[in-house]
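Subject: for your reference before the review

Hello V.,

The reviewers asked for a structural picture of the protein, and I figured it would be easier to keep everything in one thread rather than splitting it across files. Below is the amino acid sequence we used in the manuscript, unchanged from the supplementary table.
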Amino acid sequence: MQTKKPAPKPKPKAPLAVVHSVPANQQVTRVRAFCGGKTILAAGFHGEVLRWDIHDSQLHPKPATPGHQGWCTAIEAVSDASAVSVDSWGNAILWNVAADQTTKAKEFKQLHNGWVVAVAAHPNGKMLATAARTREVTVRTLTDDKPLQQWKLEHIPMSVQFSPTEQTLWVGDDFGKLHEYSLINGKLLRTLDASVLYLKHRLQDVGGVRTIVFSHDQKSVLVSGTQPKTGGFVQGMPTLVQFDLSTGKEIWQFQLPKDSLGYFHDLFVVRDTIFLAYSGQPGNGGVCIVKSGQKDPLFDFRLPNCHSICRIENENRLVAASTNANSSGNGRPKGDEYPENHSPISLLEWMIPEVG
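And here is what came back from the structure prediction:
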């Protein structure tokens, strides 16, 4: 009598894995989720806002929406059904994001006389903050072309974010400084030192505060970038710094150990866990998951030159924008042509009990 062989045990699911991936026809700088996590918008190098709808655990590309004259450098949510994007020509566009299409709601011409590097929407959905390489930061309503507040910084701003109190604006600059300004009277209230994210290398200012995000309990602020080792073809260790909002003191610092891994370019928070996108030398990059206050990550998922991530609302899924394999990022022509890079857009799922 033959004994029945036991059924093979199912393979354990990876802590973070790609569910589905599609190529964009260009490189993108930011991805953000809308419509309850069913729609993804991205800022594209072709001056377009790209779109994918998610159903049946797959990303379905929709027609891109043109409108920007230069590179679309950033996109952020104003609400679940509204977005704002900015470009390298100093312009901004408000978008209505419906279940079936993305349409232009309002265009702001020449907000800045130069490259807009960052944008943020106030929690009340009625104000925008923008930062430009002209060293200017402005705050305005969604209906007014004239700024409510305007600041000229000593150094180039790289990131902006409204505070949880809704009364102040935080600005990160390229020298690793984090400034808090009053929205009521425009005064500079304080400056926090994240200069681990900065290096003066020969004639170059390298690094800077690339992102500003608040903790889940809104008691601390997290800023990210790199601890630079060299300029030029930048080498540095992706670095995250956390400050207590009540005291302004640094309470935690987290780094990846290799200087080929570059910058933490984007992040989001799930309770006490931080998800970070990083990109370094060509081919190096990924999504790192770490518990606040810990030295070692829970998981480090490699994804070539990952520049942006966003969470799918109320799910254990995220979307990431990375860079195609064998990219042209090393500056070397390939044959007679120099092919343009593009960004694979990936839907990932995490199965990590510590995160939930």
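For the response letter, the relevant points are probably these. The chain has no helices and 30 strands. The chain has a mean pLDDT of 93.

Happy to draft the paragraph if you're swamped.

O.
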